[in-house]
From TrEMBL, chain A:
MF GO annotations: NADH dehydrogenase (ubiquinone) activity; NADH dehydrogenase activity; ubiquinone binding
Organism taxonomic ancestry: Bacteria, Pseudomonadati, Bacteroidota, Flavobacteriia, Flavobacteriales
Keywords assigned by UniProt, alphabetized: Membrane, Transmembrane, Transmembrane helix
InterPro entries to which the protein is assigned, alphabetical: NADH_Q_OxRdtase_chainM/4, NADH_UbQ_OxRdtase, ND/Mrp_TM
Record-stated family: Belongs to the complex I subunit 4 family.
Subcellular location: Endomembrane system; Membrane
Protein name per its UniProtKB record: NADH dehydrogenase subunit M
Organism: Salegentibacter echinorum
Coiled-coil positions: none
Automatic annotation (TrEMBL), chain B:
UniProt entry tagged with the keyword Translocase: yes
Source species: Salegentibacter echinorum
Keywords: Cell membrane, Membrane, NAD, Quinone, Translocase, Transmembrane, Transmembrane helix, Transport
Membrane topology annotation: Multi-pass membrane protein
Protein name per UniProt: NADH-quinone oxidoreductase subunit N
TrEMBL record, chain C:
Membrane-spanning ranges: 6-23, 32-53, 73-93, 105-121, 127-145, 166-185, 230-252, 258-279, 286-306, 352-375, 387-408, 428-451, 463-482, 607-626
Any Pfam family: Proton_antipo_M
Cellular component GO terms held in the UniProt record: endomembrane system; membrane
GO biological process: ATP synthesis coupled electron transport; electron transport coupled proton transport
UniProt-listed InterPro entries: ND/Mrp_TM, NU5C-like
Keyword annotations from UniProtKB, A to Z: Membrane, Transmembrane, Transmembrane helix
A GO term for molecular function: NADH dehydrogenase (ubiquinone) activity
Organism: Salegentibacter echinorum
Name of this protein: NADH dehydrogenase subunit L
Source domain of life: Bacteria
Membrane topology: Multi-pass membrane protein
Annotated NADH:quinone oxidoreductase/Mrp antiporter transmembrane domain residues: 123-402
Cell compartment(s), UniProt: Endomembrane system; Membrane
């Protein structure tokens, strides 16, 4: 298990090193900054791919260093199939986003440094095997995102950024509370997540309260109705690259948290209240789709669909909490795959919307027209991503959602039926948007004379497009490692 | 005699502080303020080094009236360090003014008072500590002789004398019940009401020094009137001294008679909420920070509550005290450089990016964002509160962290997102030195927590 | 070897689609190559496979659930039919699209369409089946929207996608139920256990959507906005055919009760869409309605318990309907319209097309020895055997309607005068039609052995033959003389517009959904507002507290000030007192002498004075307190 090369740490801190180099070379040209950023993101991506070799069912590549021995908090890293999915997603999406961001001249160095810092933070969250370490990285993502929104956002950015920060900080503070109770009631006291997973320390009232604190924290982050208000606002104001990261990765922190903490560390309480979580998730599915349908701003629309997709995901986790059998495994497999799928699909959608906004200078669906004619490649990518997002088979979302539904069908057929309706609603809203904004004849006076995607944008988008198709056709690429870990989770043993 | 010398050895750090203060005064008489500053720095370093060396040993002196334990040793470490930083800030701000040297001497005196407080095992030490630290405080606050400074100092004085009197009055009851001024003597008493009364009076006295709600009213005005460096000092040294003293008291006080913790918890909740909520409306940086120190005072109480119930209590106090000193002095140092109004700090990121980043780090550390020192402190504080069964208080504290974010964002956001930085102050390298050191400490202590928690 | 052919037949069109998508040159060549390769692949697979042999290939897939493609006789046959029809249509389309816009869009979508159908045909598990099914939906969306600058093309494509997508949820649910029942992802072949009626109903919903059965038939007429080759492909061996194909796949596990429902849906569709076809004023609209009606026949056969008959009709219909559509496309190219009025008499100008059209039409009517006769006869016999009079009546009525509407169309094309149209690339189009018409004429003789080889049978009987022929002939005559005023006008309109009740989907589904969406949007805004209100409430509260703080401070400060004022006042007072005391003192000095006795060191007396003055002081204090209160 313990390889001589600390692969995880390398992957984790490479972006941070890049960020420092950029800060040190503060007065260098944008070319240097771009190079440094891209190189460190690429190296990190390669590292993540390297991690993929040598995964087994438990936590692999474990690294452990003493940190606060008095509290049994340590620098513990490790990945299993579930967290590896998220790690891979983060490195890929950051790679693409950083390439996409290379064009913007404004405060480029700071932006790149911030993105690289965010990358380290996100990777840290997924790699941590220590509650304290997890929390630290978790919070850094918050701060980083605040500055991305407030620094490079649109008109209302400050309000959005503050709302995002405070809203999600409240969530993460409850997370802290839950972590403290996990720590204090563990015997002997430890922050080691492996210990806490192997022997969930809580029971009774404390477990219930802790579970709800976890739920609140992750429901805000994910987000689920009614804790989602920060999301559309943040997305409308954030820059395209920021939105891609926000929706693509930061939302996954909540999803990952549901699996890693709520499900694995308070399994009994989760099981008891899974039905509530399930109702909230199902409602979020329908709610997100319906509200998305009513939007006229295409970015806001996509933002709301995230609520819908995350609803499926949380539903899958709730199912896994409820039935420890093959169905539960299916649902959890699907939920984990959904993390990846949603990341690449929504990440691509937001980046594309950024590209559209640059060209058409608006995001209003009624004002946009004939984008497919005006920008065939851009439009083609968007249509593809939209179809992926509405769950078309052969594209990334379908295998995930298929398994979630399949798993859930055994105990909650009606919930799945409702969610299938949600799927129809999602289809309707995307088709409506495509029909209104992408089909038809372009409004010549309206579109700025810009060319279709340039090389930079193509480099950013094509990997994602390929992945969307690849995951749709060969879900086992990712699913195998997920399943291998999910199968042996300790929660099934009861 | 052997006993006596041993006792004196035990309080050697305090003696060093005393000597430092005296020698600084001598230099002032010689009209050599720089000499006073050097004396201050050397003396403080001495005390600091000695205490670091002594960490881990527990002793009492003068038949238990003074304790040289973890708390008091760390108090010396933190407060001497703080005094050095403050000395540098004072030098920058008050250089060349009349009687500059007295300030250094007073700093040393006040530090002495606070360290005495932090080690007190006897009521007389409590009184002595409060008196020394507050009397020097009046003098420091009134130093510039401007109207506002005088007004602030007078307020400080009035509140101080009233609460001091109350404390003295209340403590006489304790002494009366137990028949001794030793805190540990109250073990066998059976007079809950009188004990409670005495405790209330004690809280008044210490709470005033720590600017705890509702004894905080002097804080904003005094801070505003005093030189910024002095405000920084008043926000850190007496506060830490007072809280460590309270911790010492709580450690000894028999808990079975009265539930002191409930009182403390209520006070903590009020202080946190009150400070944050009021800080939301401040337009002056210094007043905002003043109210924020009131809020932070509430957080200290979480650790005190846990002192008897959780093994994290003491560590949390020390950690938070350390973090608080570093981040608060850092923030005040930057305020000293840029000016006292929020408008002074807008656009700082464009002119002095590193300073803006440092300020952000201090403020986020005050919120309790990891991996900064403030987080480590608050994290331990919450743990100790939950451990002691005060989960609700931890929840209040956590919600307050969220409110405090809103407070500090009022500073952070204009720094980065407004472009009207006109304040063309020259680089003041002493300040730079201080805030950079604090910056390193704030980040370093957050990561290297294990150094402090053993 | 057969594995290789299998992959070729699936991957060739996929490759062509990708090529077209990536290089975007609008050339038809890669797609023609793709479809040819697919045809060759399926042909060799078909030849390579014996009746009993079936090869399962597992690959990739979900965890524990590998994907399965099945190469057996039935699948190979279906794939072959699909690719033959597709090749004919592709060749035709090369001619048809020559002068049209949107080739870059059209060709990859066509290849995708074909690929999706092949995946669906070969799929041995639910995942792949759904994938093919849905990809076909996507492809049909794209194809119908080929000319998306036209509004009706956009609306038609959206309608087609949404209606089928909605019905597809039935497929999902049915598939989940089936997977859970058998605990395998693979589509079960024949097992002892049947699926529940609920699952069957779910599947039926999917079939109704895809195969345009009532009440989902209207998307087909909207789909006419696309290029005609698209319609030909959509209405024959793919898309609508997929619905029936699903029924073939699940027939072995269908419960008895479900068959009845399937049959009833089929019967209703036969009659009602048959009427729509009769009342239609447009050649392509007529063909669209006819498709629903013919698919209804297949459902009827399955409902009657004879999937063999349905299967035969599926094959026959694939050839017949594509021929008819391709013919219609030629007329459309010639006259820019397919409305009967505009193309009246054009048959005389485009004779070859017209003859093939007539042959296909007669085949559809069920005139021997054309292909349609064999299958329709089988269906009628099946309904007779089932003994359900509703089935029988519907079948006969359906045959009658079929004959009528093709007769109407042929009459329109024959009667009247039309100008000579100019059509470029007519030869290519005709080539496509010829390939198909050969199969329409000769294919009928091969139907029975093929169906038998699969393991089904086509029932035969005298009565059904008589009934069918009579109905057909009668229908042909009726159609030839049919006038619009034969039926009440309101009914004609109602029927022609696909029985749109209460504003149709727009009013019944779309608008309420949008309204609900807006309602939820309001809720969302409300929540946001509420949260902001909480924020502002907090801010106001904090301001109040801040003010209170200031007031308390000021009050304390004022008390202090007044103390100072008092003290200064008392200082003055003090001075005066001092002076007066001095005077008093001096006077006392004088009088001291007298008072010596008074000030005599009698401590108790002095103490008494002190106490009295203290009491007075306390009294004053109390008074002041009362005043304060």
């Amino acid at each position: 298990m313990n390889t001589s090369l600390p692969l995880l740490s390398l992957t984790l801190f490479l972006p941070l090193v890049g960020a420092f180099i950029i800060l040190l070379l503060r007065h260098s040209t944008s070319k240097v900054v771009n190079t440094v950023a891209i190189v460190s993101a690429t190296l990190s991506l390669l590292g993540a791919i390297g991690i993929g070799f040598g995964l087994d069912s438990g936590f692999s590549h474990v690294e452990e260093l003493q940190w606060i021995p008095a509290l049994d908090a340590a620098y513990r890293l490790g990945v299993d199939g579930i967290s590896y999915t998220a790690v891979l997603l983060s490195t890929i999406l950051f790679f693409c986003t950083i390439i996409y961001s290379t064009k913007k001249k404004e405060k480029l160095g700071a932006k790149m440094a911030l993105f690289l810092l965010l990358e380290t933070a996100c990777l840290g969250v997924f790699m941590s095997l220590d509650l304290l370490l997890f929390y630290i990285f978790f919070e850094i993502t918050l701060v980083g995102m605040y500055f991305v929104i407030a620094g490079w956002g649109h008109e209302n950015r400050k309000k959005a950024a503050i709302m995002f920060f405070i809203y999600t900080l409240i969530g993460s503070l409850f997370l802290l509370l839950a972590f403290l109770s996990l720590y204090i009631f563990s015997e002997p006291r430890t922050f080691d997540m492996r210990e806490l997973i192997a022997n969930p320390p809580l029971s009774g009232m404390v477990a219930t309260l802790t579970f709800w604190a976890l739920f609140l924290a992750f429901a805000i982050k994910t987000p689920l109705f009614p804790f989602h208000s920060w999301l559309p606002l943040a997305h409308t104001e954030a820059p395209a690259s920021g939105s891609a990261i926000l929706a693509g990765i930061l939302l996954k922190l909540g999803a990952y948290g549901f699996i890693r903490f709520a499900l694995q560390m308070t399994p009994d309480a989760f099981k008891e209240y899974a039905w509530i979580v399930m109702i909230v998730a199902v409602f979020s599915v329908v709610y997100g789709a319906l509200v998305a349908m009513a939007q006229t701003d295409i970015k806001r629309m996509v933002a709301y669909t995230s609520i819908n997709h995350m609803g499926y995901l949380v539903f899958g986790v709730a199912v896994a909490a409820m039935i420890p059998s093959t169905s539960g495994i299916h649902a959890l497999d699907g939920a984990t795959l959904q993390m990846f799928s949603h990341g690449i699909v929504t990440g691509l959608l937001f980046l594309l919307i950024g590209a559209i906004q640059e060209r058409a200078t608006t995001r209003e669906i009624p004002a946009l027209r004939g984008l497919l004619k005006a920008y065939p490649i851009l439009g083609g990518f968007f249509v593809l991503a939209a179809f992926a997002s509405l769950g078309l088979p052969g594209l990334a979302h379908f295998p995930a959602e298929f398994q979630i539904f399949l798993g859930g069908f055994e105990i909650y057929p009606w919930a799945v039926a409702i969610m299938l309706l949600g799927l129809v609603l999602t289809s309707a809203l995307y088709i409506r948007a495509i029909q209104r904004s992408f089909m038809g004849t372009p409004d010549k006076s309206f579109l700025v004379k810009l060319k279709d995607l340039d090389a930079r944008e193509l480099c950013a988008f094509i990997p994602l497009v390929i992945l969307i198709i690849a995951i749709g056709v060969f879900p086992n690429l990712i699913l195998d490692s997920i399943h291998q870990s999910v199968k042996y989770l300790s929660i099934w043993e009861k | 005699m052997g006993k006596m010398s041993e006792d004196l050895l035990t309080i050697l750090p305090q003696i060093i502080l005393l000597l430092t203060a005296m020698s600084a005064l001598v230099f002032e008489m010689l009209r050599k303020p720089l000499g006073s500053l050097y004396t201050l720095i050397i003396g403080m370093l001495g005390a600091l080094g000695l205490s670091i060396y002594r960490l881990g040993t527990v002793k009492t002196a003068f038949s238990g009236t003074f304790r040289s334990d973890e708390l008091s040793q760390w108090a010396v470490i933190i407060l001497s360090g703080a005094a050095i930083f403050i000395g540098l800030l004072v030098r920058q701000e008050l250089k060349g003014t009349d009687r500059e040297g007295t300030v250094y001497s007073l700093l040393a005196f006040s530090t002495l008072g606070s360290t005495l407080l932090a080690g007190s095992g006897d009521m007389m030490f409590l009184v002595l500590g409060v008196l020394i630290s507050s009397l020097t405080g009046f003098a420091l606050a009134a130093y510039p002789k401007t109207d506002s400074a005088t007004e602030g100092a007078v307020k400080y004085f009035v509140y101080g004398s009233v609460t001091g009197a109350i404390m003295l009055f209340g403590l006489t009851y304790w002494a009366g019940i137990s028949g001794s001024t030793l805190l540990s003597a109250s073990e066998n008493t059976n007079q809950p009401f009188l004990m409670l009364f005495g405790f209330g009076a004690l809280i008044a006295g210490l709470g005033y020094a720590a600017s705890l709600f509702p004894f905080h009213f002097w804080t904003p005005d005094t801070f505003e009137g005093a030189p910024v460096s002095i405000a920084a000092f008043l926000s850190v040294t007496p506060k830490i001294g007072a809280f460590f003293a309270l911790a010492q008291v709580m450690k000894i006080l028999p808990q079975h008679i009265v539930d002191y913790n409930l009182i403390l918890a209520i006070l903590a909740a009020f202080s946190m909420t009150y400070g944050n909520v009021v800080a939301l409306w401040q337009n002056s940086l210094i007043r905002l920070l003043a109210y924020s120190t009131i809020a932070q005072a509430g957080f200290f109480l979480l650790g005190i509550i846990g002192i008897n119930h959780s093994d994290l209590g003491i560590s949390s106090l020390i950690m938070f005290g350390f973090a608080y000193a570093a981040m608060n002095i850092g923030a005040f140092a930057i305020v000293q450089q840029v000016g006292k109004k929020i408008s002074h700090i807008s656009g700082l990121a464009y002119k002095k990016p590193f300073m803006a980043v440092a300020m952000t780090v201090f403020l986020l550390s005050l919120v309790g964002i990891p991996p900064l020192a403030g987080f480590a402190g608050k994290f331990l504080l919450f743990s100790s509160a939950i451990d002691s069964g005060y989960t609700w208080l931890a929840v209040v504290g956590i919600l307050n962290s969220a409110i405090s974010l809103a407070v500090y964002l009022r500073i952070i956001s204009p720094m980065f997102f407004k472009k009207q930085f006109e304040n063309e102050s020259s680089n003041q390298y002493l300040i730079q030195m201080v805030y950079i050191s604090c910056f390193i400490l704030t980040i370093g202590a957050g990561i290297a927590v294990q150094v402090i928690i053993v | 070897m057969s594995e290789l052919f299998l992959w070729i037949l699936i991957l060739a069109p996929i490759g062509a689609a990708l090529f077209g998508y990536i290089f975007r040159n609008g050339s038809s060549l890669p797609h023609l190559i793709g479809v040819s390769a697919s045809l060759l692949g399926s042909l060799f697979l078909f030849l390579n496979i014996s009746q009993s042999f079936s090869q399962k290939i597992e690959f990739g897939g979900l965890a524990d659930f590998p994907f399965v493609v099945v190469a057996n006789y039935q699948n190979a046959l279906l794939a072959l039919v699909v690719s033959v029809v597709a090749l004919a249509i592709f060749i035709y389309a090369k001619g048809y699209m020559e002068a049209e816009k949107g080739k870059r869009w059209f060709w990859p979508a066509m290849s995708l369409f074909l690929a999706a159908m092949q995946v669906l045909v070969m799929a041995g598990d639910w995942f792949l089946f759904i994938t093919g099914w849905e990809l076909m939906g996507l492809a049909s969306f794209l194809l119908i929207g080929t000319w998306h600058e036209k509004k009706n093309a956009r609306l038609g494509s959206v309608k087609a996608f949404m209606l089928t997508r909605f019905a597809d949820m039935g497929l999902y649910a049915g598939a989940f139920l089936t997977i859970i029942t058998y605990n395998q992802l693979a589509v079960p072949f024949s097992v002892t256990q049947e699926i529940s009626v609920l699952a069957a109903s779910c599947f039926l919903l999917a079939v109704m959507g895809k195969s345009a059965q009532l009440p989902f038939q209207s998307w087909l007429s909207g789909a006419m906005a696309g290029p005609t080759p698209v319609s030909a492909l959509l209405h024959s061996a793919t898309m609508v055919g997929a619905g029936a194909l699903l029924l073939f796949k699940i027939y072995p596990i269908l419960p008895e009760e479900a068959l009845l429902y399937i049959g009833i849906i089929g019967c209703l569709t036969i009659i009602l869409t048959g009427l729509t076809a009769i009342t239609s004023k447009d050649l392509k609209q007529m063909l669209a309605a006819s498709t629903s009606s013919q698919l209804g026949f297949m459902l009827l056969a399955i409902g009657a318990g004879f999937p063999g008959a349905a299967f035969a009709h599926w094959l026959a219909h694939a050839f017949m309907k594509s021929t008819l559509f391709l013919g219609a496309g030629v007329f459309q190219q010639g006259y820019e319209s397919t409305q009967y009025k505009k193309i009246a008499g054009s048959g005389k100008q485009l004779k070859v097309t017209h003859y093939t059209f007539i042959i296909a039409a007669l085949a559809l009517t069920g005139i021997p020895p054309l292909i349609g006769y064999w299958s329709k006869d089988g269906i009628l016999e099946a309904s007779l055997i089932s003994g359900n009079w509703f089935f029988v009546v519907s079948g006969v009525l359906g045959a009658f309607f079929t004959a009528s509407y093709v007769s109407i169309a042929v009459r329109w094309l024959w009667k009247g005068k039309a100008e000579k149209p100019s059509i470029s690339k007519k030869n290519l189009m005709l080539t496509g039609i010829f390939i198909l018409i050969i199969l329409v004429i000769a294919g009928g003789f091969g139907l029975e052995p093929i169906v038998k080889k699969i393991g089904y049978s086509i029932p035969k009987g005298k009565w059904s033959m008589v009934l069918g022929l009579v109905a057909a002939l009668f229908g042909l005559l009726t159609g030839w003389f049919y006038r619009e005023n034969w039926l009440p006008g309101t009914f004609t309109k109602f029927s022609r517009e696909n029985y749109t009740l209460a504003g149709g989907y727009q009013n019944l589904v779309v608008n309420p959904t949008l309204k609900t969406a807006n309602f939820f949007q309001h809720i969302d805004a409300f929540i946001l507002e509420y949260i902001e209100k909480i924020g502002y409430f907090g801010l106001n509260l904090s301001q109040t507290i801040f003010k209170a703080d200031r007031n308390v401070k000021t009050a304390v400060w004022e008390i202090g000030n007044s103390g100072i004022w008092l003290s200064s006042f008392s200082q003055i007072f003090d001075l005066k007192i001092l002076i007066s005391i001095k005077t008093i003192a001096s006077s006392i000095k004088e009088s001291g002498y007298y008072g010596k006795k008074w000030q005599s060191g009698l401590v108790h007396k002095e103490l008494a004075i002190t106490i009295i003055s203290l009491l007075i002081l306390i009294f004053i204090l109390i008074i002041s307190l009362i005043e304060l209160l």
